[in-house]
Specification:
This protein has 7 helices and 8 strands. By secondary structure, it is α/β, with parallel strands linked by helices.
Length: 200
């Protein structure tokens, strides 16, 4: 058994005990036998935590790591009255996917302002991030960065990158009238808040 510090390994390259048992449909006793036979390498993170080599497990399933995970899309509009715009985003991303031979397996959507990042406003985003952190997602297709958030989408990108997920923005240039109106409304809201706070 190899051992290393928790900050010295890439978590996306390893699986937990429960993940291995679930994927291979085996018992813990069988897993221990695979480890003893050096079929699956294990790694000691701490005195109570052991991880297992992902590639060894995938090899037993006869699949490549690149085959794991699904392609998904994320769409967002600012208001519930913009359902048509939401559908238009989904349609544009679907068209892009079809033209490039990509199968979209799941859609996550939200209808709220870009600066709302709490439940229940961002159910779609929270569900997406949960699947990302569980290594269920391979690629995320999004119309443009402002669909994630107006400012600071790089944080989202870095989280996805950490979990080996590619984020593909279909267009960084498309901004229709509704999007411009959203920006204007949000700026007005922020300015009003500042004015009320500091009694300007």
């Amino acid at each position: 058994m190899e051992s290393f510090k928790s900050n010295e390994y890439d978590p996306s390259s390893y699986l937990s005990l429960n993940q291995v048992i679930e994927l291979l449909k085996i018992s813990r006793i069988t897993l221990n036998r695979y480890v003893n036979d050096k079929v699956i390498r294990d790694y000691k993170i701490s005195s109570k935590k052991i991880l297992y080599n992902r590639d060894d497990v995938y090899r037993m399933l006869n699949i490549k790591p690149s085959d794991m995970g699904i392609n998904v899309m994320y769409t967002r509009v600012s208001k519930t009255t913009q359902l048509n715009q939401l559908k238009e985003q989904q349609s544009l991303i679907s068209t892009f996917a079809i033209r490039n031979g990509i199968k979209i397996d799941k859609i996550y959507s939200d209808m709220c302002r870009s600066y709302y990042f709490k439940q229940p406003h961002r159910r779609g985003m929270f569900e997406l991030l949960k699947d990302v952190t569980q290594y269920k997602v391979k690629k995320i297709y999004i119309m443009s960065p402002d669909r994630v958030t107006r400012f600071g989408h790089e944080i989202f990108d870095e989280i996805c990158k950490f979990f080996k997920v590619d984020v593909i923005y279909i267009s960084n240039e498309i901004m229709d009238k509704d999007s411009k109106d959203d920006v204007r409304d949000e700026v007005i809201t922020i300015l009003k808040s500042i004015k009320e706070t500091y009694a300007l």
